[in-house]
Amino acid sequence: MTSMQTSHRAVDAPTRFLESRGRRLAYREIGDGPPLVLCLRFRGVLDVWDPAFLDALARNFRVITFDYSGLGQSTGEASYDRRALARDALDVVDGLGLEKVVIAGWSLGGLAAQVFAALHPQRTTHAILIGTGPPGPQPHEAEPVFLQTALIPVNTLEHEHILFFEPASAASRAASKASHDRIAARKSDLSPPIPPETYLRLLKDASNPSAIFPDDGGYAETLSKTSIPLLALCGDHDIVFPVENWYALNRRWKSLFVTTLPSAGHGPQHQQPELCAELITSFVQRVR
Fold first, then answer.
1. CB 167 within 8 A of CB 173
2. Tell me: domain 16-286, CATH 3.40.50.1820, correct?
3. What are the tens digits of pLDDT across the range 129-166?
4. Backbone angles phi, psi at 199, to 5 degrees
5. CA pair distance 242, 264, nearest whole angstrom
């Protein structure tokens, strides 16, 4: 299927649905160009993406976002197992008739994107890994403040400062407020938030929940040898997935690029939406 021209912006893009494997997957799309599929973070639904980031990407890509099975507006059985999330992404790709895509993901979605790229290299032109980490044991662990804050049922703006930005930086806190306001600008056709009983169950049910990304599928070995260009886009103080874990792979993963934003946290694409979109665009257009 060729790209689809659309005049919608992220703030008013309609939610559409596709049927696959006996469930209905909710998705939205804006822009025109090579398809770029974005996988969501922990507790994420369609409406957690910063519209400024999506709109900036849509200048050069057909940007596709979606709700995982059983979450948000999608039906089916919910799971936070990385393989199930990657399968959701594949079903969106297949349901839209796409041959190859740029697969991208934020945090938990970055894990799904890596599994997708490892299992479906023939369908993947590039992988964009935002605020996430590589598979397997990591020398640098998540900070305790992450789960202490991420499991609070309703996150306030102050919690968002901690989770996704760099609270020690006044500029980052201001960027957090600006991103929060842009996200809140969408007033209708919203995906319902994930209730605590659901996301707590999904964490408990995930395979080997003691590790964030257990390498139970040989993903590290596969991705270390892949020719698919991989871009890790990180903040210099990510309390969930420290960027230092990527630095350790710079000379071991042959197609890995690592970009680090200063005074930034777990959501660099929300702190610098235009810059991150430009970095992604340049990477996809110039790295083969």
1. yes
2. yes
3. 999 999 988 899 999 999 999 999 999 999 999 999 99
4. -70, -30
5. 11
